[in-house]
Write a structure and sequence with these properties.
44% helix, 10-stranded mixed sheet, alpha/beta
Length: 324
């Protein structure tokens, strides 16, 4: 199968490398790491075993051409670029699978790709891109696939089999929208509070701060959020708000999901999510997909989410500080 990976950071490089090692014809659409990846390939450092692959590299999608499967692993802050990056890669039978975080990504693709060609994937994995062409795999790796606004069909299971054949645990969900809310229960608190922690606990619970006068600290890793009782309580409160918002949107989410997500996160140790690293590097936060769109949907469902509202406001302030 001819596969293109659009967005070759940690997620795209890791899963693309796994598929390449299993024998797929992988084409990486690479930007900043092009010279390094073209010469040295992609190196995955993992407790499951280190390995290196040499995918085909391209700077422009026209160099790759039409593929059978396109994996989108760009940060959602770059979604505006997809309208020009994807058309050269897509034919009438191409499956387009977005592995991006948050809500609304499939809907954006449906603005210029037929809905029947769109799938969504949720990556439950701890990864960091530690240097050009090098990804550190810390924990987990499971992928969950689903069709956009459709029941899974033979194509969905074929792609899941492709991942499993590459050594990636992969399951299929019959309700992609519900699965997005389930993952958001974990992503939103740890990514959001991890970044907002630079402003301090009082700023987070208050939902506002004077960024000109206040000295910022450091982002908070998952272990710090879970071992400090104050932060751990905020994590749980945010999770329960996300669960309530998901229920308001019509999805059957139990409060016990919060306990499951916290237990799963404990195994990650001192994990610094890519969102935190992006912020420290002065790169934009994925505000729309991870925080603002969930907040809008909660508002439409008339579900009160005071913690999420305060967190989103604070993150917007912090992102504004980056711009200044």
């Amino acid at each position: 199968m001819k596969i293109a990976v659009v967005g070759c950071g940690a997620v795209g490089s890791f899963y693309g490398a796994k598929l390449a090692r299993a024998g797929g014809e992988l084409h990486f659409l690479v930007r900043s790491d092009y010279q390094t990846v073209r010469r040295k390939g992609v190196f995955i450092r993992s407790k499951q075993g280190d390995f290196r692959v040499q995918p085909k590299c391209a700077l422009h999608p026209q160099e790759i051409g039409v593929c059978q499967l396109v994996l989108i692993a760009l940060k959602t802050t770059a979604n505006d670029e997809l309208g020009k990056l994807l058309p050269p890669l897509i034919g009438p039978d191409t499956a387009v699978l977005t592995l991006q975080n948050g809500l609304g990504n499939e809907e954006q693709l449906a603005g210029f790709i037929p809905s029947a060609q769109i799938l969504g994937g949720l990556c439950f994995v701890c990864l960091n891109r530690i240097e050009p062409g090098v990804v550190e795999h810390i924990d987990h790796g499971h992928v969950m696939l689903g069709e956009f606004q459709r029941w899974p069909g033979p194509r969905t299971h074929d792609i899941a089999g492709l991942f499993r054949n590459a050594g990636v645990p992969c399951t299929v969900t019959d309700n992609l929208a519900r699965a997005h809310w389930e993952k958001l229960t974990c992503n939103l608190p740890f990514k959001g509070l991890g970044v907002a922690g630079v402003a301090g606990y009082q700023a987070v619970v208050g939902g506002a701060m004077d960024l000109v006068e206040k000295r910022l600290g450091t982002c908070l890793t998952t272990d710090r959020l879970l071992t400090d009782p104050r932060w751990a309580q905020l994590v749980r409160e945010l999770m329960l708000e996300v669960i309530a918002a998901g229920r308001g949107m019509g999805f059957d989410l139990a409060d016990s999901l919060a306990d499951q997500q916290i237990e799963r996160t404990h195994t990650m140790g001192a994990y610094k999510a890519s969102t935190l690293i992006d912020f420290e590097r002065g790169q934009p936060l994925e505000l729309e997909s991870l925080f603002l769109e969930p907040l809008r949907q909660a508002d439409r469902a008339k579900v009160g989410v005071p913690r999420l509202t305060a967190l989103a406001r604070l993150l917007q302030q912090l992102d504004g500080l980056r711009l200044r």
